[in-house]
Amino acid sequence: MLLDAKLSQFDSFPIEFKEINPEDFLFTLDASGTRVPRTDFEIENGGDKILISPDANGYINDTLQTHLELAHKNTVVINAPVGQGKSYAIIQTVKRYYDSTDKYLIFVASPFVSLVKQYCNDIITDAGIPSDQIYSYDNIGRSNIDYTKRAVQVITANTLLGNPGEDGFKNSDTKREYINTLIRHCEKEGIKVVFIYDEIHDSYHNFQQEYIFNLWKWRNVIHKNFILSATYNEASKVVIEYLAELTDYKIQIIESERVRFADKQSTLHLCYSSAYNFTSKTIEINSLIKSLVARGKKIDILCYSKNLAKSLINPKDEIGKLLLDTYKEIKDCTSELNTNQREENTEPTNQYDNEKCNVGTNFKTGVSIKKDNHAFVIIFPSRSTRLPFRNKYGIFSGGINSVIQALARQRFKGEIHIVLPKPDHFHYDSLDHSGMTTEQKEVFKQYYNLVQHYKAPDSKVKYIKLNRQDFLLREFYENKLKGNVKDEITAIDSLSRSNTLPRLLFPSFKEFKLETGEDFLANEVPFFGGDISSYVTYSALANQFINCRLQEISFRPVIKFEEGKVQDMLNTVLNQFYGEDYALSLAPFTNFSLFYNDFKTSLFKHYQLLYKKAGGDSFENIVEGTPQAKKFELQLLLFTTKLKEGKLDSISDEDYSRGDYFSDAIAHTKDLDIDSIDDVSYKNRVEFYQTLNYFREKMIASLNEYRRGGDSYHFIPSSYYEEFFTTADIVKVRKLLNLYKADKLLEIGVFEFKRKFEESKSLRSKLKTFYFILREDFLDTEERTVDPKINFLGSRRNVKPVKSIKLIPFKARLNLIEVQNYINLTTLKVYSNLEDLF
Question: Which of 366, 365, 359 is closest to 324 using CA atoms?
């Protein structure tokens, strides 16, 4: 649905962002929780942060440069939103250092290998620095370039801090030699070193204590740190302290105003999916990509998981083939690393390419998508990734900052489409702390109620201000972690422990914040990442995204079915959502197979269908293959039969057995000429039921009559007997057990057939199973307390008296065997103009 003018109430609603304030470094909390002053750090500009605004074009470079003193030793914290050109501004700062008469070595530390090449290219293009003065991380260990002769070094933060990654034990010898050689060179030549940490929100994890010692190697030559991000977090504050300690404890904070430029904003489209797992076949993903291709859009698809991305570019997959046929080449932007090691030290090939259609996981941050007529598709984690202890959100595991960064990749005005699960219910009273007016809260509530998940959680999502994150972390640390062992910590601190014993020191709050804090917020606090959909929905409705504005939301309304009342609800759905013209306009011109599948497909595509079994406590999604889905489809079949025939006078749920279905199918197929059928799948279905009818007739013919005294009946042995199937019959049965797969209802288990044979391992077991199916579905046997025993084929056997034979109906109820097709088209009159109607 396209959004109406009500959301205009949020046109000027303030954009909330993570601020870096002087108080973060000038005060601390004592053991009692009281705020006390600190004297170690100096906040420049008289203890205040510097506030700047973008120019008329939305950029900050000109203003920012006036506040940067190149020769002054300090740590500069730049807090600017996405799209204001902070990366361009810092590249211009690189140029200023490069052009300086003083000798500087400039490091640009990227959070990801995939961004190194982009930084190098941008420095050449935007700063005009010759390529032979830039040394790239990609050359380490791959060339004999003398990196001591190059003024600009573009590397990864991992390399700079000596972080070997999750699967390594130490940084490689080549990288160590690279760092140590540059340190000795700068000390010998008196070269000052400038470090630029861009996108610090994605590299803070490198600044653990064991790696910080590597930065102290530069203590004699370090001159300045630049720290940049649009999405700072609590861990970033600890990083700032570590770095500022190396620049004489001096910190300069520069913060840019969050300003929206409507002419630059892309349109944001939220597509809520009810699917538990997201795959290339998920309705919302499949239909969205198809529609964008049909509209001729250039597409990039960012996926939360590598597996999903790989499936979308698989040429054997429907979507993969469509993308390949449309764009000729798909760039796979997923990780190439195998246990943290790139084979043969080869250059990575998985980097984003602005000239191609990119599908993957590694362009969530840093990359600038600059394409006209572009649609950026972002697929968020499905509900299946929400686990009790730690969510499996893939590239969005970092919480809300990863969301903002992902949206910011779209730099030209275009479209951003997000596929996401429905959010949990919202605690609307918590909006009292958001700054919303009463009217704004009502509008928010109206739209949020439309898309929220049908099942209410144990606790609702609460809005929480970003500046409360430190409080949440400290409360958890003090009360749940440290508080749990508080007496033990005191006891250990009072001991005089030997230096030879292992160190026993409880981690400090700042260590916890740096190493675990962001994961805690992203997993334990719904609004900060535990339920990403709720945050995205809030931010989109409240106009919190700078580079895009919500224009459309799409979702499937929920329809609830209860066992025993399915057809009654289907009739309600028909009247409310389809209207009486639906059947009248389609039924006379389609066979039942097409009519049924059209109605079923429409239901599942446009609505979220829930089912509650009789006596059940809750509704569950109707998912193919589940017991509730089988029960639902059975009633849907019967309802559609009545609908096509115009006999909806009775809409009560009714029984329809596998035997009923087999009899109807046999009625439609027994007289067909199978050799005249070209469609392979249809031919297999016909052969299956003609063969089934062969065995049905054989079983009927095998009935014997028993007469003794006043007792008279036809009978069939109670147990399977081997004489029933001949050698030729067994060949037919083997083929039959492959042919059934052509019948969709048998394949998905609406009627119990497939599973019975899967459980039967031996041939004898399968024949026995088939024998009992024939007897159950085509004969009505008499149930006695004890089956009578009579002579049959030379042996005394228990037998079942047969009350009647289930006849093949003269007019079958439904026909899903035939190929979906239109009928009676010759009765339609094609009008060339309106005058023909009068």
Answer: 359
Each residue of 614-657: pLDDT tens digit?
988 889 889 888 888 999 999 999 999 999 998 888 889 999 99
Tell whether the model's pLDDT for residue 346 goes beyond 50.
Answer: no
- Gyration radius from the chain CA atoms: 35
Residue type, 752: E
SS3 string, 87-126, reads HHHHHHHHHHHHHCCCCEEEEEEECCHHHHHHHHHHHHHH
The two structure tokens encoding residue 396: 């969005």
pLDDT at residue 299 is higher than 60: yes
The burial of 720, by beta-carbon neighbours within 10 Å (0-12 exposed, 13-18 middle, 19 or more buried), is given as middle
pLDDT digits (tens, 9 = 90+) for 131-178: 999 999 999 988 889 999 999 999 999 999 998 865 555 678 899 999
- CA 644 – CA 667 distance, rounded (Å): 19
Tens digit of each residue's pLDDT (9 = 90 or more) over 30-72: 766 678 898 899 999 999 999 999 999 999 999 999 999 999 9
**Pick from 378, 423, 367: nearest CA to 268:** 378
- Under DSSP, the state recorded for 831 is P
Q: Could you give the CA distance from residue 585 to residue 587 in angstroms, rounded to a whole number?
A: 6
Beta carbons within 10 angstroms of residue 733's beta carbon: 18
Cβ(530)–Cβ(524) below 8 Å:
yes
Q: What is the pLDDT of residue 142?
A: 86
Given a cut of 70, is residue 830 above it in pLDDT?
Answer: no
Contact in structure between 465 and 19 (CB atoms under 8 Å) = no
From the list 698, 680, 688, the residue with the least C-alpha distance to 754 is: 688
Q: Give φ, ψ of 595 to 5 degrees.
A: -60, -45
The Cα-based distances of 304 to 277, 481, 581 in angstroms read 12, 31, 42
Residue type, 401: N
3-state secondary structure 273-305: ECCCCCCCCCHHHHHHHHHHHHCCCEEEEEECC
